[in-house]
Amino acid sequence: MDSPLQFHGRVVLITGAGRGLGRVYALAFAERGASVIVNDLGGDFKGVGKGSLAADKVVEEIRRKGGKAVANYDSVEAGEKVVKEALDAFGRIDVVVNNAGIIMTSSAAGIYGNFGQANYSAAKLGLLGLANTLAIEGRKNNIHCNTIAPSAGSRMTETVLPEDLVQALKPEYVAPLVLWLCHESCEENGGLFEVGGGWIGKLRWERTLGAVVRQKNQSVTPEAVKANWKKICDFDNASKPQSVQESTGSIIEVLHKLDSEEEISPNPTSHATSTASPGFASAIGYKLPSYFSAYTELDTIMYALGVGASLKDPKDLKFLYEGSSDFSCLPTFGVIVAQKSMTSGGLAEIPGLPINFAKVLHGEQYLQIYKLFPRAVHSYSGKELICYSQYSLFLVGSGGFGGKRTSEKVKVAVAIPSRPPDAVITDNTSLNQAALYRLSGDWNPLHIDPNFASLAGFEKPILHGLCTFGFSARHVLQQFADNDVSRFKAIKARFAKPVYPGQTVRTEMWKEDNRIHFQTKIQETGDIVISNAYVDLLPPSRISAKTHPESGELQSTFVFEEINRRLKDVGKEVVKKVNAIFEWHITKGGSIAAKWTIDLKNDSGKVYQGPAEGSADTTIIISDEDFMEVVLGKLDPQKAFFSGRLKARGNIMLSQKLQMILKDYSKL
C-alpha cells in the first residue's frame, strides 16, 4: 500500500459542512492533518433559516479529536466573507470543497435529466460547465477543479429514498474520492465522477464521427439529414472531445476540405487493412483528433530559455527579445506546437491499444520545417503546412499485436561518422531547467516531482528528452548556420539515456555537406544521451534576401517610393533638421517581409530598399498594416510603441524628431 495521503499544513474550506456530506468531508480532512473552515448557514435542507449550531458542533467534534477548525455561518452567496474568515484564521487556502446544498456538487439529475426536476437539473449541469471553465482558467496557476455527482444519504435524499438505501449510501463512501481529488499529488483536472456506495466512475463526452450532409456551394436540406441519420447516430469509432478546440476542430477541417473540394471520409480507418491480431486491429490507422495551437512571442521566448538560450551569448538575443530587429523563433519550437496530440491524453483514446503510461518512453523524434515560424500565431490554416513532427514511442509491455516492427513512414536515424567530431559545444543545464522547460506545455510530473520520478525508477526528476533535443539543435544552428533559422530544414534524433537537471551536455558534431551529424553526451559521465542524430541545413545560396517573403505587394512599398520621390523637393531642409538614418523593418504575418532605409543625414536624403548602407541611428519594426495606419493618421505612433505594435531600438528619441518632421511636411 502507498503511504497515507496527508494534509498537514494545508487549509481546507468546506461549504455546507454542518451536516451530511460536508460534515464527513470536514472530519476526514481534519483527521489527516488539515486545518478546516466549517462553513454552514444553519438553515433547513431547503435553505430556509440560519443558525450557528450545525457548524459549531462539527468544529467541536474536530477539536475534541485534536484537530484544527473554525466555524463560519455566512451564506455562500457572500463568498468574500467566507474567504476572509479562512485567511484571518489560518492565513491561506489550499482547498475549496464547494459542497453547500445545490451550489457546486453536481448530480445525476443534471447529467441525465430527471422527471419533475427541470430547475434542479438545469442548475446541476450548469455547475459542470462552470467547473470545466474553472479547470481551464486555473490550470496555468496549478489550480485544479473537478466535479462529483454523488449518490449519498442526506437531508435532501432521505425524503425520496427508502430508509435502507439511505443507510447503504453513506457519505463516508463518497469522502475518499473528494480527499484524493484535493490532494496535491493528484493531477486530475476537469474530471466528472459519479460516486456512491463504494463505487466510483468517471464520465466523459462521446461523439459520433457524424456525416457531412452538404457539398460545396450547396445548401443543407432536411432530406439530406434524414438520409444520413444512421451515420450521424452511429457511435462505432466514436471520438471523445475534451475541449472546445477539439470540438470545433473537426468542423473546421470539414470546411477546409469542402472549400478545396477534397474527398471527405467520416471514418479514417474504414479502408485500412492489417495483419494485426484482432485485439489491435482498431488501433491500426487510428487518427488522433484535430486540434488548434496558438502562441505569442512570450511562448517562443519561454521555449528558448527552456532549451538554454542565454544573454551570455549576444547572438541569442534574437531568440529572447521581441524588440530585436531579427527576432526569431527557434525551429525546434515545432515540437511544442505539435506535442498536444501526445500530452492531452490522445494515446489513451486509441481503441484496442492497452498502454501503461508509466512505461511510455519517447524513443525518437523527427521534425521538418516547411516555413519559418511566425513570431506569433493566433489561428492556423489547414491549407498551409508549417512543420511536420514525427514521434516514435516505446510502449513497454504493450506489444503482442503481431504487426511489423517498423514502418516505411518512419524517418530513419543515421549513424555518426567514424572520425573525431568537427566541432564540440558544451552547455550547463540549470537545476531549474526541467521546471523552466515544462512551462512550454509538457506537464509530466516525472520531470518535477521526486515521488513520481521514484515510482518510475529514477533517483530524482529527469530532464525532458525534448529539452536536451532543443539544446543540441541550438548548438548545431549556432555552429554551422550562425543562428540563421531560415537555413534549418529538419532534425532527427534518438533518445538513449536521461539527463538530470544540473548536468553538462556536450554536443559533438560532424559536417557532411548540408547534413550535420551529431550525438550528445553528459560531460560528467560520458554517457550518450542522444545518438544517431542529424540536422539538415539549407545551403546559404537558397536563402532569399528577404527574411520572410510574402505573396502580394506590401502596401508600405508605395509609401516609401512616394517619400523618396517627394524628398527631391524638400530633402536638404529635412536633412538639416533631422540628421539621422532610419531603418525600417516591415513585417507581415509576424515575420520581417521587407527592409527600407530613410537616409535623412547625407546629401539631400534618399530612400532605398534594404538595410542601411552604413549604420542606422534608429531601427523601427512595425507591421505593414500598422505602418499604413500610422501614415493615414489612424494610429498614434507613441500609442503604438507603448502597446508593442511599434518597436524601436537605437536612438529612440530621434523617432519623435522624424514624427515632427513628417507633420511639418505632411505632403510626405
List keywords for this structure.
668 residues; alpha/beta; Rossmann fold; Helix Hairpins; seven-stranded antiparallel sheet; globular
Please tell me about this protein's structure:
The chain is of the alpha/beta class and 668 residues long. It has four domains: 11-203, NAD(P)-binding Rossmann-like Domain (Rossmann fold, 3-Layer(aba) Sandwich); 205-255, Helix Hairpins (Orthogonal Bundle), CATH 1.10.287.4290; 305-352 and 363-397 and 410-537, Hotdog Thioesterase (Thiol Ester Dehydrase, Chain A); 555-665, Nonspecific Lipid-transfer Protein, Chain A. Helix content is 31%, strand content 19%. It is built from 21 helices and 19 strands. The protein has helices spanning 20-31, 53-64, 79-90, 108-112, 118-138, 163-168, 175-182, 222-227, 229-232, 244-260, 297-306, 317-320, 334-338, 340-343, 433-437, 450-455, 465-481, 555-578, 624-631, 637-642, 653-664; strands at 11-14, 35-39, 68-72, 95-97, 147-150, 192-196, 199-203, 360-369, 387-395, 423-428, 488-495, 504-512, 515-522, 528-537, 580-588, 591-600, 606-609, 618-623, 646-650. The strands form four sheets. Strands 9-8-11-14-13-12-10 form a seven-stranded antiparallel sheet. A five-stranded mixed sheet has the order 17-16-15-18-19. It has a four-stranded parallel sheet with strand order 3-2-1-4, sandwiched between helices. Strand 16 and strand 17 (606-609) form a beta hairpin. Helix 1 (20-31) crosses helix 7. The protein starts with 10 loop residues before the first strand and ends with a helix. Residues 262-278, 542-551 and 664-668 have low confidence and may be disordered. This is Peroxisomal multifunctional enzyme type 2. It holds the Pfam family MaoC_dehydratas. Pathway: Lipid metabolism; fatty acid beta-oxidation. Residues 10-140 form the Ketoreductase domain. Its main location: other.
